[in-house]
Amino acid sequence: MATTSLPIRRSFGETLRRDLWWLPGVLTFIGLGAFVVYSTWAAFQGEHYAFGNYLSPFYSPEIFGDSPHAMFGAKPAWIPAWVPFSPALLILWAPGGFRFTCYYYRGAYYKAFWADPPACAVGEPRDSYWGERKFPLILQNVHRYFLYLALVFLIFLAHDAWKGFWFADGFGVGVGSIVLAANVFFLAAYTFGCHSLRHVVGGKCDELADKPVRCAAYKACTSLNVKHMLFAWCSLFVVGFSDLYVRMLSMGIWSDWRIF
Amino acid sequence: MRKATFKIWRGNSEGGEFKSYDADIQPGMVVLDAVLQIQGEQAGDLACRWNCRAGKCGSCSAEINGKPKLMCMTRMNTLPENEPITVEPMKAFPLKKDLVTDVSWNYEVKKKIKKFKPRAPDAEDGTWRMSQGDVDRVQEFRKCIECFLCQDVCHVLRDHHKHEEFIGPRFLVYAAALEMHPLDTENRLGDLKDESNIGYCNITKCCTKVCPESITITDNAIIPLKERVVDEFYDPLTKLVKILRRK
Questions:
Q1: pTM, two decimal places
Q2: Residue A191 domain-assigned (yes or no)
């Protein structure tokens, strides 16, 4: 073991880097921050989340609610009146948890929101560091369970996207149909590229050659995993836009253009 | 021929300062060429470790304009022309002199990782059979040249000095190469969790960004190991499946 002392820690933000090292962190802070603010606001609205055959992905599956998409009817009487209720609040914790515990997002928000570190080779604001080996961040290990839930949600969202092509007068394509289909596409690309899924389907095995199904699934996950960051951002933007689109239609601010 | 100004760290563990030198820059030069020119013509006592000049020995690791890089693989035409170029030693290791650090801690860490333990030979002649696809996965990790730039940029070592508790990305890659090897039978997951403290890694991907061999350290080595540790210690469902399979 070395006996000489280590270099003195650099102070917060101290670096000799000349590039725009702060820019990715700022963009992440703005992007994730805006999404969290908008999605929280949208989840508490409890209205304008459906328009005809379109249902906002923030409210899907609608377990209890006032729209025709509700699976079990209106808000049940056993939920006390003083409890804030919105169909989104019943379900949004699951996809939210999936993103919060995602390996890509973890690395991104540790840097952007907690400056741990602010960027590579840039001084940090704190001396203490626990990492993910102690409470509370050890709970990030629950990620694979959120993945299982996210896979179930994908089925509901795919069903919603399919319903988005069926109007009162039969099959058709509106801009909303394409928006909801794009939402499923990007969410699927993000979810199927998940590091935990890659592990579960084949990464855990040292030998895959004798397991052709696992091997194919591992290769497919890996090909999406390479672009996990891209799909994480695309799906985040599209899911937020899908809610905004349905909301604007429902509020009568935008009208849906029926392509055919 | 143009001139470039270099600000090179001169000093030892007691202290030091950046000193300015001018170097003649020819087309195709790398930072190491300029540093050796300065050493040969202006600062004969400048301590600088180098060997292959081809990005394969991992000796000339340093920080150029604040970024961990190999001096021999950093072309001068990739650096801003109009401002001085700073060259300083790695920050995660004790400084010996000028640009030379004491990286011996890494060799001690490597000794602590459980060695390769192959299963019994597959054939009577003492040989094994492996699929190329299975070997390819760990082959990526064997590209490592042990330049220790990933260790240098890792904030757990660089900023938090957790050298006693955390083995760093280089040795997580090494452990992954063993743990994921199709022939290996050793179990290192307990050590990875408790001794190597893989939980310290918070997935900043800085190690991946600086790797001169483009090893996808975080996605292909560290996260798969974290997932295996979850299998072994944190996932009750996987544990249950394992117990039922044993019965």
A1: 0.95
A2: yes
Contact B202 A132 (CB under 8 A): yes
Task: Report yes or no: A120 at the B interface, CB cutoff 8 Å.
Answer: yes
Q: List chain A residues with CB under 8 Å of B69.
A: none
Among the partner-chain residues A7, A145, A228, the one whose CB lies closest to the CB of B91 is A7
Contact in structure between B25 and B6 (CB atoms under 8 Å): no
Per DSSP, the residues of A24-91 read HHHHHHHHHHHHHHHHHHHHHH-SS-EETTEE-GGG-S-SS-SSTT-SS-S--TTS-TTS---HHHHH
pLDDT, tens digit, for every residue of B105-116?
999 999 999 999
Question: In one letter, which amino acid is A82?
Answer: W
The ipTM estimated for the assembled molecules is: 0.94
Scan for tokens 């009750």, then name that residue: B236
Size of interface A-B (CB pairs under 8 A): 151
Q: How many structural domains does chain B have?
A: 2
B59 neighbors B90 (Cβ within 8 angstroms): no
Shared domain check, B148 and B96: no
Does A242 reside within a domain? yes
The CA distance from A55 to A53, in Å, is 7
Element (H, E) at B167: none
Angle at B101 between CA B95 and CA B104, to 5 degrees: 115
Q: What is the mean pLDDT of chain A?
A: 95
Among A194, A189, A38, A29, CA closest to A104 = A194
Its domain, for residue A88, covers 23-73+84-123+138-250
Distance from CA of A143 to the nearest CA of B (A): 10
Does residue B96 sit in the same domain as residue B108? Answer: no
Q: Chain B residue with minimal CA distance to A210?
A: B131
Contact residues, A window 169-198, toward B, CB-based 8 Å cutoff: 195-196, 198
* Neighbouring-strand partners of residue A204: none
| Full residue range of the structural domain in which residue B181 is found | 103-238
Domain identity same for B92 and B155: no
B166/B227 same-domain check = yes
**CB-closest option in B153, B197, B231 to A120:** B153
Residues 6+ apart with CB under 8 A from A170: none
Q: What are phi and psi of B89, to 5 degrees?
A: -75, 165
- pLDDT of B53 > 60? The answer is yes
Cα dist from B79 to B35, B50, B83, B102, B126, whole Å: 15, 20, 9, 27, 53
The answer as to whether A181 is a domain residue is yes
Residue A238 lies in a domain: yes
